[in-house]
Amino acid sequence: MTFQIRLSTPADTKSILDIYAPYILNTTTSFEYEVPSLDSFQKRIDKYSIDSPWLVCCFEDQVVGFAYACEHRSRQAYQYNRELSVYVNERFHGKKIGKALYHTLIEISKLQGYQNFLAGITQPNEPSVKFHKGFGFNLVGTYHNVGFKFGKYVDVSWWELNLDNQEPGEIIPYLELASKDMDRCISEGLALIKQ
Most CB contacts within 10 A, which of 34, 36, 63, 101? Predict the structure, then answer.
């Protein structure tokens, strides 16, 4: 089996949206009600990709998962935080693709200089809780009844992964990272699929 992790391109947008759409239509994992248009979704990818990589995992040239990081809040003092998300084609669950993507995304973000990683998990969702605990995330707290979807209120728990709390430096654009460093992060991620 041949897997690849790389930066997304505009040619991937439909495949990415095809993976994301069932999460919108069938779950409370996403709080969106309607699947966005291809054009608006591409604009979203473009916006998030200014500061952080939008990664895809491919199996034999088919996009089977994606992960991205975005700002948690817009005030300047929050600039060293990234909120993370990962989605995998349901036919490829259990193959460690999400783990590989998350690892790669976190390692690249560390190289950029980000210090804290955040994740919101709709509840109940024990697989996602276990997944984040495996990366060392800790529970911060829960927003109760913060979302309303499919005729019911939904809680969201918030998780954090804090680094060393040293005084942060300048954030390095990911496209300016050395290619050998990017390649190392990707290789480490791919190695998790093969374990």
Answer: 101
